[in-house]
Amino acid sequence: MTQYANLLFANDAGIGIITLNRPQALNALNQAMLQELDSLLDVIAGDDTVQTVIITGTGEKAFVAGADITEMLPLSALEGRNWAKFGQKVFNKIEQLPQPVIAAVNGFALGGGCELAMACDLRIASDKAKFGQPEVTLGIVPGFAGTQRLSRLVGKGRAKELIFTGDIIDAQEAYRIGLVNKVTASSDLMASARALAEKIMSRAGIAVRLGKAAVNEGMDMDLESGIAYEAEVFGLCFATKDQKEGMTAFVEKRKARFTAQ
Ligand code: CO8
Hints:
With 261 residues, this protein is of the alpha/beta class. Helices cover 48% and strands 16% of the residues. The strands form 2 sheets. The protein has a 6-stranded mixed β-sheet, with helices on both faces. Strand 2, helix 1 and strand 3 form a beta-alpha-beta unit. Bound molecules: octanoyl-coenzyme A. Belongs to the enoyl-CoA hydratase/isomerase family. It is an enzyme of class 4 (lyase). Pfam families: ECH_1. Its EC number is 4.2.1.150.
């Protein structure tokens, strides 16, 4: 496995654990880290031994404290646009990864860090995590799709409040508004993320991937097209061994033995 300067990666019994690792800058996303993440995601997408992915940050203080401000400071308008487009491309890759992706948010998830968490399928927050889009305090707007994903997750009104004020909210408030799926004690964060990953991995793997694709694709379609897409995906499930196994196990009153085929 390739060694990365700003990331750690381990395949732990089917759970791919990505740790964003720039603790000296609270894991702020610089270009090098984003490029490494981009390459690693390609490797993971093609590796069927990775069934789920957890993304977390190194240390106890930060998940990701945003895009690297020292790198952004001198950018021209064109460079800013290109930097945003690259980050958006990498975050789309997370969203479109075939495997389910869980963000284990261990601390500050600000700006690009909140945007990274939102590109994941599910978010578990430590009770010490803090979320926000503080870009307006720096003279910019969110640029890694925060204006789009935040409003889709928590609604327009709450998204605008966070984006206009730059306020930082705690994990409980993030849970209350639907930004995170669950809050756990900081000491339980990784165990909780792993337990969720393991539960997903115990289900029919192809069905889980198709479910992810159906929700993602449907979000960008009108209802009629979305449900038509769902019918296609539903039909595909009947071409899998797991569908026969899952339903046979139900009829035989035993636990299903899925093989992701
Ligand atoms: N970029 C670069 N360095 C950072 C960042 C960052 N985003 N955040 C923290 N650091 C560095 C600090 O400079 C400091 O370095 P040093 O020790 O060398 O002085 C070190 O990390 C520790 O940070 P602090 O001393 O500030 O720690 P505190 O506990 O006092 O404060 C905070 C923690 C509140 C998280 C504080 O560090 C902070 O406010 N950070 C910036 C948060 C922020 O504004 N993030 C949003 C950035 S903008 C963004 O993400 C836009 C995304 C889209 C980009 C589109 C491309 C154009």
